Amino acid sequence: MRWWRITTARELLVTGIAPMRVGGMVWCVAEVLGADELQTALAGLDGWAGDPSGISRTAELASFPGAIAVVDRVAEVAEELDHHPDIDIRWRRLLFTLSTHSAGGVTRKDLDLASRIDTIIREAA
Ligand SMILES: C[C@H](O)[C@H](O)[C@H]1CNC2=NC(N)=NC(=O)C2=N1
């Protein structure tokens, strides 16, 4: 479990946990999802599978430069969200693995990032 300082309304939406105001700042806990909650959430994503310890999906792009362009775009989003995927690159095939390292498992932050990765892959196809 880990406390996140919330600076935007969007971040609040992502944690899905009741915010707490402490010393003029807003904080939320990033909590590892339960197995059932996770499976329900995975059904709304494109090709992700896994368990509360981590989720992953692959993507095959048309070319190696095409795959690297996707990685580049994912890097931008990861910086924006301050949440970073593990990425395995093999020619034009990518494997993304997500978990919240500080929480020790999959949280809403991973679901949010997964959905953003889906959009990037869809746009690249
Ligand atoms: C300080 C900063 O918020 C943390 O180091 C962030 C950066 N990106 C991260 N990404 C992931 N996947 N898990 C984390 O716990 C994490 N922590």
UniProtKB/TrEMBL annotation:
Keywords associated with the record: Lyase
Keyword tRNA processing: no
Catalytic reactions of this protein: (4aS,6R)-4a-hydroxy-L-erythro-5,6,7,8-tetrahydrobiopterin = (6R)-L-erythro-6,7-dihydrobiopterin + H2O
InterPro entries for this protein: PCD_sf, Pterin_deHydtase
CDD domains cross-referenced by the UniProt entry: PCD_DCoH (cd00488)
Superkingdom of this protein's organism: Bacteria
E.C. designation(s): 4.2.1.96
Pfam families: Pterin_4a (PF01329)
Entries under HAMAP family matching the protein: Pterin_4_alpha (MF_00434)
Family, similarity comment: Belongs to the pterin-4-alpha-carbinolamine dehydratase family.
NCBIfam families: PRK00823.1-2 (NF002017)
Name recorded for this polypeptide: Putative pterin-4-alpha-carbinolamine dehydratase
Organism of provenance: Asanoa iriomotensis
